[in-house]
Amino acid sequence: MAHVEPAHLVELALRNAVPTEADTEALRHVEQCDRCRDELRVLTRLVTAARSAKALDLPTPPPDHVWHDITRKVSQEPTPPQGDDEGPDSRTAPEG
């Protein structure tokens, strides 16, 4: 069997749905495959940490002036690069 698709490993880690035959096959592969087993272990730890997070654990949003500054900078016209307009190397090769 080929490696378990990353999206399927995420679904296995989330455990949101009733297990299917495809899940059973994927878990059989995970038992035999170090790579998939490690990936599922990491994803499961991530899901567990995310589900146990409290609002207090989350970072506070930045002040409004930060978002206004980001919006202003993103909306600006791009500035052309500094330097020659003739291309990356405007020198001519020496004649020999």
3D structure, described in words:
The chain has a single domain, classed as Orthogonal Bundle (Arc Repressor Mutant, subunit A), CATH 1.10.10. 54% of the residues lie in helices and 0% in strands. It is an all-alpha fold. Residues 54-96 are annotated as: Disordered. This is Zinc-finger. It comes from Streptomyces indiaensis.
* Mean pLDDT over the full residue set: 85
Instruction: Outline the low-pLDDT stretches.
Output: none
Structural class: mainly alpha
Strand content: under 5%
What CATH architecture label applies?
Answer: Orthogonal Bundle
Protein name: Zinc-finger
Biased composition (Basic and acidic residues): 65-75
Region (Disordered): 54-96
Main attributes of the structure:
Arc Repressor Mutant, subunit A; 4 helices; 96 residues; mainly alpha; Zinc-finger; single chain; 0% strand
Brief overview:
Residues 65-75 have a biased composition (Basic and acidic residues). With 96 residues, the chain is an all-alpha fold.
Task: Indicate the topology.
Blueprint: H1 6-14, H2 21-32, H3 34-52, H4 64-75
Helix pairs in contact: 1-3, 2-3
Region (Disordered): 54-96
Protein name: Zinc-finger
Biased composition (Basic and acidic residues): 65-75
